Amino acid sequence: MKDDPLTDILTLASAQCVEVGILVAGGSWALRFPPPRKIKFVAVVKGDCWLSLEGQGALLRVMTDDVFVLPAERGFVLAGDLNAPQADGAGMFLDALDKTVKVGDGEDFFAVGAHIALDPKRGELLSEVLPPLLHVGGDSSEASAMRWLLDQLVKEVAADRPGWAGMGGDASGGGEGCEAVEEGD
User: For 5-158, CATH number?
Assistant: First the structure.
C-alpha cells in the first residue's frame, strides 16, 4: 500500500476510470445532472461556479484548482449563474463527439471530470461510508494530486486516446485504461 489513504482505499475497491469529460462555459449558464451511478471527480481548471447537491440546502462555490468528489447517488447542478435556465448536462455530454461540452458565451470556466466505477462488492462499502460531497480546496496537496491525474485525462481526450496516461486505469497504477462508455452518467 502507498502512504496515501485515499489511494489505498480506491485500490482496495478496484477503482477504474470509465468515462472522462471536459466542460467549457462562460456567461450565464447552468447544467443539471442526474445522480451519477459512479463516483464522480471534478477538477476546476479555470474560473469558478456554483455546485448545488440534491438534498443539501447549502450551495458550494468551487473555484480554480478546487476538486470535488460526489460519491453518493444524488443529482446536482453546476452553474455560473444560479438564475440561468438549467440545461440537461448528461444529455449534452452524451451528444458531445469529443467528450467536450461548451455552454453559455465565452470560456471563463473550464473543468475536467471523470466517473470512477468500483468493484460491486468491495466498492459498495466505500460508497456507503463516504459523505455525499467531498470538497478539496485548491491549495491542498490532495487537490494537486487529483488535478494531476485529471489533467492527464484531459491530454488523453485531446489526443483522442482516452486512458490514464501512463498510469493504467485504476488507482494502483495498473490495469485497464480509462474507456469512454456511453452510459450517460
Answer: 2.60.120.10
